[in-house]
Amino acid sequence: MAGPRPGSAPGHRRSGRSGRPHPHPGALGGVAGRSRRPAAARRPGRPSRRGGRAHVTRPGAPHTPTVLLYAQDHQGLGHITRTLTIARCVLAAYPTFVAYIATKSPVAGNFTLPERCDYIKLPTLLCAEGVERSPAEEEAAKQRIRTIRGQILRAAALGLAPDLVLVDHEPLGAKGEFREGLYALKAQCPGTKFVFGLRDIMDDVGRIQGQWRALGVYDALEHLYDGIAVYGSPSLYDVAEAYAIPASVQPKLHYCGYVVRDPPAVDRSALRQELGLPPSGPLIVATVGSGSDGYPVLEAVQAAVERLRALVPELHTVMVTGPFMPAEQQAVLQARATATCRVMSQADNFRLMAAADAVVSMGGYNSVCEALAVARPLVIVPRATHKVEQQIRAETLASRGLARWVHPKDLSGPRLVEALRWAVSCDRRAHEERVHEVIPSFDGAARLVTYLARWLGGD
Known about the structure:
Layout: E1 12-14, E2 21-23, E3 47-50, E4 53-56, E5 66-71, H1 78-93, E6 98-103, E7 117-121, H2 135-160, E8 164-168, H3 179-188, E9 193-199, H4 205-215, H5 217-223, E10 227-231, H6 239-242, E11 253-255, H7 268-275, E12 283-287, H8 295-308, E13 316-320, H9 327-336, E14 341-344, H10 349-355, E15 358-361, H11 365-373, E16 378-380, H12 389-399, E17 403-405, H13 415-425, H14 428-438, H15 444-456
Parallel strand pairs: 5-6, 5-8, 6-7, 8-9, 9-10, 10-11, 12-13, 12-15, 13-14, 15-16, 16-17
Antiparallel strand pairs: 1-2, 3-4
Helix pairs in contact: 1-15, 2-3, 8-9, 8-13
C-alpha cells in the first residue's frame, strides 16, 4: 500500500473505547487514550507561580498550565514519535498540565495520545491526480501552504498562551513558518519559556550552519530561546562544535541523552511462536522506517540472508516494510518471502528488536536508538540522499564499535553479507557492555523533564 488506510496506522490497532487506533503492546510506552481536559483549579485573577514564572489569569478564564510542542514531520514517523514520547513523560510528571502538539504529519492522528493531550493539525500541500505544476507553481503553492501553517501556529500560540514551548528540530519551524508566531508569543507573554529540542546529528554541518544563518536561527538561539535540549550524548557527537553554536549560547545547551520509549518486556520464545518461528537460531530484524525509500535495502537483505544461510543454516529474518512503501514494491518482497525470511507491512519494531539477535536499519534516529537500547548488534545502510544524517550516524557508531555500515552503492557486493555475519555472531554480552560503556542510559525523555522543571516547577 502507498500509505496507511484511513483510520489506521502502522503498528497500531483500534481502541475499543474511543474508536482511535492504539499501539501494539509497548508502543509509545503503552500510553492511554485521550480524555476531557481537567477544569482549572485556580481562582480567576489569582497569580500562580511555577519555576519563578508568575502567570496572572483573567477573570472568568482561569489559566490551565499548558505546554505547546511543535513536531517537524512530513513523510516520516521519527519526529512525531519522539514528540509523543516526550509529551507522555511531561504530562506524567505534571498532572495539572495539558499539552498540544502542532504537526503536519499525515499519520499523527492515528497514534493514541496521552491523557490531556491533543493535536493541532497543520495542513500539507495536496495535489489531485493528473494535475501537473511547473516548478514555479509548485514553489508558490508550497509557500501558500507554509503561510497558512504560520497563521495557524501564530493563532494557536497566542490563544493558548502556553507556559512553555518546545520546538523540535527546526528552531523557527520548517522554512521559518513558526518564526512570527514564536516572536509574537514572546512579546505578548514574556513569562512563556522557549526550549529548542534537537537530535544530536541533523545533517551535513556546513549545510545546517548555512541554513541557520539564512533563517536567523543563531539570533533566535541567543535572544528567543531559554534552553536548548540535545537528544544525544556529547561523548558521541559534540553539537556545539558541529553547528558552530556561539560561546554566548553554549551555556543554554543541555544534553539529555537519547530519547527512547521504555523497552518492551518480551518473552522471546512466545514472540517466536507468535511469528511461527522455531524456538532457537539467530533472528535478524530489518526495518526501514516509514518505508518510502526502503525497498532497495530490504531487497538486498533478502538476497544477503539467503547467501548467509549457507553459513548459518538456522538463520531466520523478519523484514518490516513500513506504511509508506509503495504497494507494488511490497508485493515484490512478499512474493520472494520464504519460511525463513518473513515480510510484514507493519509491526511494533521495538518489540521485534527486543526478541532479535541483530538489527538492520537505515540509520534513522528512532530505529538506531531502539536497537541500541536493547543492545542489539546493528547493521546500518544509510539513505542515499543529499542529506547525510544517517551516514554520519552510521560512521559515528561504527567508529565506536557499536555497528557496521554498508554504503547503499555496495548492497550487491559481499559487504552486506559480511556485516550481517558479524551481527549474528557477535558476542552478546560483550556487545551489551560496549553499548553501556559508550551510552550510559537511554532515558532522555525523563532527563528532559528534569531539565524542564527549572521552568515548569511545581504547584
